[in-house]
Amino acid sequence: MHRLLSSGIAAAVLVGLIAATPLVAGAQDLALAPAGRLHAEGTALVDEFGRTVLLHGVNNVDKFAPFMNPGDGLNVNAQDADLLARHGFNTVRLGVSFDALMPERGQVDHAYLDRVADTVDVLSARGIHVLLDNHQDGLGQPWGGNGFPSWSLESRPSPAEPNPGFPLFYLMPSMNRAWDEVWNNTHGVLDHLGQALGALAARVEGKPGVQGIELMNEPWPGSPFLTCFPNGCPDFDRKYQAAMQKLTDAVRAENPTVPVYWEPNVTWNETMPSNLANPPTTPAITDDDIVLAPHDYCIPAELAIYLGLPPELRALCGLQQDKTWGNIDSFTERVNIPTVVTEFGNNDPTVLANTLEHADRRFIGWQFWHYNSIFGPDGGTDPFLGPIGPQLVRTYPQATAGVPRAMTYNPDNGDFIYRYTPKASTKPTEIYVSDLSYPNGYVAAADGGTITSAPGARLVTVTADGTGPVTVKVNRPGSAGAELPAGEGDSSSAGSSGSSGSSGSSGS
């Protein structure tokens, strides 16, 4: 059934009507294609059909031995993948670690690589891209951390050295000496890490669902860390970029086409800017497939969680996160590569909203920290049905046959609006419709394009009517829907057309 929207969108399709018992859409209702290869084009991630891809997803990181064992209650399995796909998540940052890849000096654990590859296959078969994240926290076991194998480093805490635990153990003198060993490649630690990451890259070559390999999680500068405050540390970043390039070369030698993700040194989380690819301080990035992988954490909120400080500190989060996203803007303008926020979140809806609103405004993808298997030995409930679910399970364009211009989404009422400029592609624009936000179905409308998906589809597909801007709205029945803020996106004067609707139910 059609209705005319007062906003000027000339055609609409009612794809969900009030139903006594709303249907819950499963992953199978999405008719998902296996995840295909992504590559960088300027600041965009682009799929094999030439569409701009937006990634929403989660982290899944198994930090300690035995690593990545199916059914262990942590590692994602097929049922978890179905759950994630049903909620519209199309990426998982899957943690791997140096100590699991190479538990003995020079000896790669190929059985572990096989388990990693199996998990990649499970996720990518459901349309979920997999970022393989070389994860460390606190460097290694001698400090109560994880990531680097003990054989790779010689520094150790002294018996009298206090260990304050995460995150303050990064201030321990012995840990800083060990980080210096990493960046100076003392005892060949970077050589061995490059060998391990090369073996990982070789094992997953030919798997298009591999989103990329992230070289190192939250790298700490070591002894020079104080030089990073208050305005970043160009001298350390010069050494750090050389290390990232060395590891990138090791990956490229085994897998020339896999995207490689570089994370800023971890003082970024305290709002220090990155000097990566900032000539003449550091070289420009010439590799075609490098992606920036920053995090967006609110340090006052983290201190309240980990150190028991007053929760009122969270009132400062908006200011800090504005600074972090300003650093992302500066980096993007300077370097012109894509960004994916590979960690954020602490289950505080306000802090989450800050990240998600900033990301929507910039059309930047993200991976929430953290998801554990709910289908392991202890079972569990769907974590996205709690208070953070409506924030994370969003209506959004997963793939756009064009150039994104503007997007807003209101998780409180499901109002969504998106504008893009079309370009040639062999597949249409695909918009995932949240399975949490529309208990009585949804209304979808297109101005400058035609909705080609079936009524009630979890993926709304849109084809452009011409070369002019396309604007798509999704909202609950009876809602006036969202409007783009004045000045955002291209002005649209093109005609519109939509498919006629039919009675049906949409997931709730």
UniProtKB/TrEMBL annotation:
Domain Glycoside hydrolase family 5 C-terminal as annotated: residue spans: 394-474
Every Glycoside hydrolase family domain range: 49-372
Lineage of the species this protein comes from: Bacteria, Bacillati, Actinomycetota, Actinomycetes, Mycobacteriales
Protein's name in the database: Cellulase family glycosylhydrolase
Assigned keywords, A-Z: Glycosidase, Hydrolase
Feature: compositional bias, Low complexity: 491-508
Cited Gene3D superfamilies: Glycosidases, Golgi alpha-mannosidase II
Disordered as annotated region, ranges: 468-508
PANTHER family, alphabetized: ENDOGLYCOCERAMIDASE, PTHR31308
Family (UniProt): Belongs to the glycosyl hydrolase 5 (cellulase A) family.
